[in-house]
Amino acid sequence: MPYQSRSGHRPARRDSKGGGRGTGPDPARRVAYDVLKAVHDRDAYANLLLPSMLRERKLAGRDAALATELSYGTLRHQGSYDAILDACVDRSISSVDSDVLPILRLGAHQLLNTKIPPHAAVSATITLARRVVGTHRARFANAVLRKVAARDLGEWLDIVAPDGGTDLVGHLAVTHSHPRWIVEALAEALGEDPAGGLAETERLLVAHNERPQVTLVAKPGRASIADLVNSGAVPARFSPYGVYLPEGDPALLREVKQQRAAVQDEASQLVALALSRVGLDGGDAHWLDACAGPGGKAALLAGLAGKRGARLVAAELQPARARLVAGAVRRSVRDAGRTVVADSTRPPWRAGSFDRVLVDAPCTGLGALRRRPEARWRRDAGSAAELVPLQRSLLDRALDATRPGGVVAYVTCSPHLAETRGVVGEVLAERSDVTVLRAADYLDDVPGLAVGDYAQFWPHRHGTDAMFLALLRRRSG
């Protein structure tokens, strides 16, 4: 019987020849275990580690699909599984050693959120456990997972989740596998109060745990939507440069191989497009991406600039990331951009040098939890406050870098109020030379964006990352 996740995704089954050449007789589960352990032990990024591990161990097809489902599925639902596992061990789950804990989470995901038969899920997981943690600890894992297998996910959540009538935030946090502080922050950004119910917040949490579709961007001047549609993609809802890939590996598309197209979330495309759509009086030849790494928005901006005869300066503080940016910009429209290693809080350019400036500020990343599920466990309630001074400085210096009449786009891949409206409000309170433009007016094909003068994308409304956008025009004075 083929394995299938409860979301409808059909992960891999190892064929009779053993599939790929990963470590041991069950390469998909071993890859998933190694990813989960690396995320737990050294804060590895699953979206970077998993593809490289699949290539290194030569996993493809069904084995690669199973490894992907087990890795991302376990990370998305980790909070729920930990609450359940805590009820199944004699001591707190926090005391379980870091070699065994990924085994327990991996087994719980197979038992509670896939259609893998329970006996097969336990047997395969314990076989893996014997290889990676030894017989003694494998016996412990076996005992715990057999307790987990006694109930389905709904029954377990009825037992371990707080009562929704007395602690709605806690109930949603456990049921939908998010830290409590993130549930509170998202509810605040959506304008909901637990006393009045958190219906939309819950829809957002559900969306975070669904597998996102692959979105591509056709680089302006290098590829067209028609090219990608001919390769099997579907035109995006909102972006004139975007397509969705219903199935398959985007790296196998001809346009991606030729670096004429790339994977990029639709909201990331649209915030760059909004900046390019603002009308300017006077010159429009000098554009800046002040925080350009790893280069996706910079590549799109370079293409848009090149179509107008303008040039983009892509600035990135970290040399390694700057090299990624340089490659992305170089593969855009020829001679439309250059990359510099620079600290945009202490910029090397003169004030008033640019007509358009993008500040895609470092942030908590709460808007990309669908794609980077482990990020919800990496941050804490103080993370946003720690980033705010940097975000405020970047925006302030970006406004200084913009000529009178020019425009700045302040963007974060986070809806957290401290990082979005809070940062913009604090900077505006210190300056008398800025006019706020109504951002949604430059994205009028996208419904439900406007939050006053700002724009906020949402996964459950728009099928995109939760990207925030403010457009600010520099005035004389």
UniProtKB/TrEMBL annotation:
EC number(s) reported in the record: 2.1.1.176
Keywords: Methyltransferase, RNA-binding, S-adenosyl-L-methionine, Transferase
Residues the record lists as binding S-adenosyl-L-methionine: C291, A292, G293, P294, G295, G296, K297, E316, D343, D360
Domain of life: Bacteria
One GO BP: RNA methylation
Molecular functions (GO terms): RNA binding; RNA methyltransferase activity
Chain's role: May act as RNA methyltransferase.
Designated name of the protein: 16S rRNA (Cytosine967-C5)-methyltransferase
Gene source species: Lipingzhangella halophila
